[in-house]
Inverse folding.
């Protein structure tokens, strides 16, 4: 028992914290695009921060619940409704057997959302993870996005949670025009002249329609120029790596990125800013700001402390 998928929406998958330790075999970690929204959804319902949840894009799924449960919805505003009545994001919500959850298309800010259910999704782990890697038909529900008629049960269903009314977090405001991303230079920043590096940070880019869980392609009227060309001996790729192929139009590698690549990488978006990019829509501007690796690490440590504090608050 758990819920039935009546309408999957454009692209809804099961994701957990990710599948780690297999990149040397060509298997990317996957996991959530917006790590922060994903973790907060789980914490609101008392789950571990990395428990499996649903990630959806531009419009959420329609779910019919088979039993009394507690859910939380985070991420972009896709106007969730329960039995036709609007409900709040970033709040634990009790649902009952027979209730139906629906969504509209993404409103002003944000384009990805998360649904966590108290007790966790009953999805088998593949290589230690419930995450869906659709390109390789791996993990999640049969290695694919959800479809109408799917049923998902819960590992340890909970009909209620203590202090339900207090399980609330501030609703973030997502940018609607421009997103500013902090970047650590490297590892192939020496493939670009000092003048070209300055231009990379001076002028904004635009998010194109070529944006999915694998990568986000950007464009600028004046392409980024290499000293020689954009090809290198293939090496590893991290979440947030900014590849610059010979075309000079950057590609930011996302959760389902390939594990290696042969294009120069001018820098890497820092971990705490990746959720902002995950919520950006095609047509939005992207501007980069250079920071040191020490600053990136300090910001990540601060975020980890905040997440632990929220987990303690909600008993997760």
């Amino acid at each position: 028992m758990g819920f039935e998928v009546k309408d999957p929406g454009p692209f809804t998958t099961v994701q957990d914290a990710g599948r780690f330790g297999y990149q040397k075999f060509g298997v990317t970690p996957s996991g959530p695009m917006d790590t922060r929204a994903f973790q907060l959804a789980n914490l609101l319902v008392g789950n571990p921060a990395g428990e499996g949840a649903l990630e959806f894009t531009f419009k959420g799924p329609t779910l019919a619940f088979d039993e009394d449960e507690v859910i939380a919805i985070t991420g972009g505003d896709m106007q969730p409704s329960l039995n036709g009545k609007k409900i709040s994001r970033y709040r634990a919500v009790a649902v009952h057997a027979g209730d139906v959850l629906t969504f509209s298309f993404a409103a002003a800010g944000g384009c990805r959302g998360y649904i966590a259910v108290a007790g966790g999704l009953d999805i088998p782990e593949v290589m230690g993870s419930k995450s869906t890697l659709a390109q390789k038909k791996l993990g999640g529900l049969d290695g694919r996005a959800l479809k109408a008629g799917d049923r998902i049960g819960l590992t340890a269903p909970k009909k209620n949670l203590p202090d339900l009314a207090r399980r609330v977090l501030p609703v973030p405001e997502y940018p609607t025009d421009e997103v500013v991303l902090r970047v650590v230079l490297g590892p192939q920043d020496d493939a670009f002249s000092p003048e070209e590096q300055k231009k990379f940070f001076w002028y904004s880019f635009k998010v194109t329609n070529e944006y999915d869980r694998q990568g986000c392609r950007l464009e600028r009227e004046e392409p980024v120029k290499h000293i020689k060309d954009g090809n290198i001996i293939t090496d590893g790729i991290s979440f947030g790596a900014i590849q610059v192929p010979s075309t000079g139009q950057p590609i930011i590698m996302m959760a389902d990125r390939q594990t290696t690549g042969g294009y120069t990488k001018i820098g890497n978006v820092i971990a705490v800013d990746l959720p902002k990019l995950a919520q950006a829509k095609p047509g939005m501007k992207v501007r980069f700001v250079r920071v040191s690796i020490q600053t990136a690490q300090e910001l990540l440590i601060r975020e980890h402390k905040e997440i632990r504090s929220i987990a303690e608050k909600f008993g997760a």
Notes: Helices lie at 35-44, 194-202, 274-278, 293-314. Residues 2-174 form one domain. The chain is about 15% helix and 30% strand.
